[in-house]
Amino acid sequence: MSKKPVRVAVTGAAGQIGYALLFRIASGEMLGKDQPVILQLLEIPDEKAQKALKGVMMELEDCAFPLLAGMEAHGSPETGFKDTDYALLVGARPRGPGMERADLLAANAQIFTAQGKALDKAASRDVKVLVVGNPANTNAYIAMKSAPSLKRENFTAMLRLDHNRALSQIAAKTGKPVASIKSLCVWGNHSPTMYADYRFATIDGKSVKDMINDQVWNKDVFLPTVGKRGAAIIEARGLSSAASAANAAIDHMRDWALGTKGEWVTMGVPSNGEYGIPKDVMFGFPVTTEGGQYKIVEGLPIDAFSQECINKTLAELQGEQDGVKHLL
Ligand code: NAD
Ligand code: LMR
């Protein structure tokens, strides 16, 4: 094995997404079948959580993954992010009974401020950060703002689950395979205000919009189905999505690290002003990736309906940002 191992930190490692994620990272599905990894696993210092984490590590050990070059358990981000090359920030405070959105934002602001600072201090200067824990866009924004010595473009939020959900809905509607659908994207916040957009999508070179040709379906079926899919899964499973979220995290990091060969994917990334989105807003955009860098797809026409949808999700994100401003 010739490649040098890279360090992959995962927070919330003993949680449900962690359980669906770690084994796939260790088997090479995220960074390639020739890339050894050292897992830096973070949980809250609580005895029960650390004990559960030990159990997960015993199972990882029992898989005898050839690419798993090391494993560490941590209870604090300062030690957990040392020299980290890839950080998947999954652990977050879930919404409890009677908790308002503002309380959730404040609780998570504390977690992501501390983690941003720790990454700033300890991680590799090229660390690629993916925030999964909700509210994902705003948590990523907080971490980015708390890490001034790292490049802002190295902080991203997960919109890939929404992207994948949209792909499956379009595949079902058109009766075409998921893999044949190109150039789909999801704009904005990972929340029901997101705008899943198939205006530019094609299947075998043909326009998906023309194939579907039904704006009522777009507005009344497609957008609410994709936007409220997280809630529908919680309702059905009694727990939030985990395997599909872990899968989307793998897709996001793999494509960022290894490239999309010109294909579009959706990533939540800090805006540089593209499409009128103010600088630094952590927004879902269509991107392509190459050589470990992503590039926002620019110059797409935005019609009146799309602009209205984009304005709505932007307003929500700016409201979230305003709600945590005093904590940064
Ligand atoms: P979970 O409750 O099963 O696990 C979360 C784990 O994180 C717990 O083990 C907890 O102890 C740990 N944790 C909490 N705070 C931590 C901290 N400061 N440092 C380290 N670990 C910490 O939850 P889950 O189902 O794995 O979901 C995790 C998060 O992902 C939730 O916020 C959920 O809403 C979010 N989520 C996001 C998406 C997305 O598409 N962006 C999709 C699904 C779930
Ligand atoms: C999801 O999209 O499945 C998660 O973000 C869970 C949620 O709260 O919607």
UniProtKB/TrEMBL annotation:
CDD domains cross-referenced by the UniProt entry? MDH_chloroplast-like
Q: List positions binding NAD(+).
A: G12, A13, A14, G15, Q16, I17, G18, N108, Q115, V132, G133, N134
Transcription regulation as a keyword of this entry, yes or no, is no
- The UniProt record lists the Lactate/malate dehydrogenase C-terminal domain at 160-325
Q: Which reaction does it catalyse?
A: (S)-malate + NAD(+) = oxaloacetate + NADH + H(+)
Q: Where is the active site?
A: H190 (proton acceptor)
Q: What's the EC number here?
A: 1.1.1.37
Q: Name one GO biological process term.
A: malate metabolic process
> Which residue ranges does the record assign to the Lactate/malate dehydrogenase N-terminal domain?
6-155
InterPro entries on file: L-lactate/malate_DH, Lactate/malate_DH_C, Lactate/malate_DH_N, Lactate_DH/Glyco_Ohase_4_C, Malate_DH_type2, NAD(P)-bd_dom_sf
Q: Which UniProt keywords apply?
A: NAD, Oxidoreductase, Tricarboxylic acid cycle
A Pfam family assignment? Ldh_1_N
Which GO terms label this protein's molecular function in UniProt?
Answer: L-malate dehydrogenase (NAD+) activity
Q: By its UniProt entry, which Gene3D superfamilies does this protein fall under?
A: Lactate dehydrogenase/glycoside hydrolase, family 4, C-terminal, NAD(P)-binding Rossmann-like Domain
Query: Family, per the entry?
Result: Belongs to the LDH/MDH superfamily. MDH type 2 family.
The entry's function note states: Catalyzes the reversible oxidation of malate to oxaloacetate.
This protein is called Malate dehydrogenase
Q: Which organism is it from?
A: Piscinibacter aquaticus
The gene for this chain is: mdh
